[in-house]
Amino acid sequence: MQIFTCPFCGPRDESEFHFGGEAGNTRPDGAGVPAERWAQYLYMRANPKGATREVWVHLTCGEFFVMERDSVGHKVAASQALGGAEKSE
C-alpha cells in the first residue's frame, strides 16, 4: 500500500486517487488544429524514468492536484493544488 497526500484532505491510501496525466500537457486550442497535433496531445507521452510531475484527482473530495514523484521508486516528493500551496510528503 502506498500513501499519497491530498493537498486538501491530507494523507490517504492510493486507492482513493486516479491518475490524470502528465502535468503541462496543454490541450490544443481551436477547430483548425491539424490531426497530427491532436494525436500528439492525446497519445504521445514523455514517460520519463525518474522525477516526474503528474496530475492526479482525489476521488473522495474530487479535487485535482499536481504530484511530484519518482517513477522508478514511486517516492512522492510533493503534492500541490493546481492553484495553491505545496505540501511535502
Any overview of this molecule?
It comes from Taklimakanibacter albus. This is Sarcosine oxidase subunit delta. This protein is mainly beta. It has one domain (3-25, 36-88): 2-Layer Sandwich (Folate-binding fold). It has one helix and seven strands, in the order βββαββββ. It has one helix at residues 35-43; strands spanning 3-6, 10-13, 17-22, 51-58, 63-70, 76-81, 86-88. The chain is globular and about 45 Å long. It starts with a strand and ends with a strand.
Give the gist of this structure.
The protein is mainly beta and 89 residues long. Helix content is 10%, strand content 44%.
What topology does this entry show?
Blueprint: E1 3-6, E2 10-13, E3 17-22, H1 35-43, E4 51-58, E5 63-70, E6 76-81, E7 86-88
Antiparallel strand pairs: 1-2, 3-4, 4-5, 5-6, 6-7
Question: Which fold does the CATH topology refer to?
Answer: Folate-binding fold
Helical fraction: 10-25%
What integer value in Å does the Rg equal? 15 Å
Number of strands: 7
Strand percentage:
35-45%
Which architecture would the CATH scheme give at its second level? 2-Layer Sandwich
Please, how many helices?
1
